[in-house]
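User: Please predict the structure of the protein below. I'd like the answer in structure-token form so I can feed it into my own downstream comparison script.

Assistant: Understood. Taking the following sequence of 780 residues as input:
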Amino acid sequence: MSLFDWLIVLIPLCVVMGVGYYIRSYVRSVADFVQAGRLCGRYVICVGDVANALSIIGIITYIEMHYKTGFALAFWEGILLPLTIVMSLYGYCVYRFRETKALSFGQFIEMRYSRKFRIFASGLRSMTEIICNMIMPALAARFFIYYIGLPQTFRICGVECSTFILVAAISMILAITLICFGGTLCLVVTDAVQGMMLYPMMVVLIIFILWKFSWSSEIVQVMQDRIPGESFLNPYDIEQLSDFNLFFLFVTIFNAILHRASWIGAGTSGAARNPHEQKMAGILGSWRNTMNILIYILIAIAILTFMNHADWSGKAKDVRTTLSSRISEELILDPALQQAFKEKVAALPEQKHIVGQAPPLSEKSNLDTVYLNTAHQTFREIEKTRPSALKDGKNGNAIFAQFKTLYHQQMLAVSMRAIFPAGLVGMFCLFMVLGMLSTDDTRIFSATLTITQDCIIPFMPKLDPKKHLWIFRLVAMGIGVFFLCGAFLMSQLDYVFMWSTLITMIWMGGSGPIVLFGLYSRFGTTIGAWTTMVTSLVLSILSIFVQRNWPDYVYPWLQSHNWVEPMGNFLSKVSRPLNPYIVWTMNPVKCPVNAIELTFMVTIFTLFLYIAVSLLTMKKPFNLDRMLHRGIYNTDGDNKVREKLTLSSAFSKIIGITPEYTRGDRMIAWGIFIHSFVYSFGIMFLGVIVWNLFSPWSREAWGRYFLIYNLVIPGIIAFISTFWFGIGGAIDLVRLFRDLKKQKVNDMDNGSVEGNVSVADIAEFARRESDRDKDGKNGK
């Protein structure tokens, strides 16, 4: 990158770190560190979540999925629209969790079940988070190495050092530094600042991509050029898609309901002034997501077009050649064999695929196939002649699985570097740096919070608040070191989404019913929770072992015992009733049952197990009102009375409007209802389905639909929300700093010092919290 590009990256990054350093003086208590003193407004939370949503892992996951399946499946995601909006409008799970007044997820688990289960569940959740998120520094390091063009190693005083470890360490140091500055308070403020930086950058990137690629002569042509059953545009022609298909959509809907609160309790999920403000932040998130989804779609479209259209075939060959060569530097240890592979890849001819003249592309036969086949053949040959020349001495199938994974992951970095000119190269790099930073610090702190509050503090009940804060910092540092070690040692053999699904199965396999029924039912018992979680843990570990070791050990073991054919026949017969959405066929490189299918089976089993065991062991119904501070247990000074449902209030009740809503809140809720239910769900989803029942659309019609629904209308909303949330976020930040200064003055007047909070201070915090909750109910 040029000096100008480097300045574009470094100056805003220094501003973010400077803001984090400044905010540390306002951290006066554990409550400030854990939940930002519960002083945050809806727009600070909402704008900060923009940065959290735009992550390297998120963009790579999106590109991997849609480079393979296109955007036809996204049409059926319209089923999720009313579901997600209803959950946001009603504050599903989030409102009830906020009513418990728990400062952490584990505190809620102890309220609902027991202290021992709190420690076990919190530890398991944290372990799952840490293992799953170990991939983040690895993805970030590889992205920047490939995007900037850094060498795999460099020398300092004659000692060869790994660039991968250096870049991963820098990403961890930046994230942990912000956490140590001020915990949630620092993350909320710096995420909001990053969000206000990201909005204008997204606008520039959107305009450039739409200018760079022609919609009619390039983009639509590429997305229409697919074989029957694998359409990238027509949602009625996708039955042959694998992995990310209609079954994947069904599981997504199922998980959206069951696991709404499985990861609740960290970050900004309890940082708002009151439950109503937290609820409004979630509602505004529906508008905020429009910009995030739009930039994801356009980046995916740019890569699809650039890599597959004949107009860009020369540069696409350079990208594929560079990508394959760089990956071989990691997987082939012998320099001579490495060079031979590079020459073999460079000799592959340019693929000028002309739509309409060449056969349509497919998942099995596309412009990347020849590069993947060349790599697979080369690795098998090396395995036979010099197996020690392959990374970790693995067999050719296992090395090819890693090659294929890295090939699709790093296509984002290499192709976007080829697409952008000087200036935008630096802007996109900054875009990814900020996305990386906001995601890393949030996920590390989520695990830090759970481990500290729910696994360490229960054994240290009389801990001094100053030492309490230092435990947070030390745990965050330890998690950062663990991330680095895991990133260096871990090899990934599947899509990022599949990896995340597989690992989170450890927690999510049994957490759904435990948390959901813990908030909404009276029959759940501690024995039911223990049985569910232990069973889920055992099944998940077995599933992960098979998935992760399939090409290395499982398939070779089946082959050595002549079980490949019998097992293949069994899996084929079992999955045949669900074909073509679930197809289990034997493969030496990849496990026949994917992570989504394994997770779903484990989740269904543990769901019924929780219900059955709880009903069998329940001695008396749980006192839910006490946990939620309702009725006689209300600590806010006034009872929560259910509003009587009348004809005039029916529509307001349907969309979740309560007496707490101000006039502005009602306008926001109705606006989101009209856009989501009437326009998106009613007209653009149900209306289109009805139309196609009587008159099926052509590929060209689906192309126009995609343009209007996914780009034009979201673009208008995105540009409006840029100014709306930017102004609202700035106002809320000013208000937050004003409240923090007032609190700091009051603490100094009372003789409190940073990090040393008395019992009276904690009582005062609880009083202020109750006052804010009461103000929120009165619409103040």
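That's the full token string. The chain has 31 helices and two strands.
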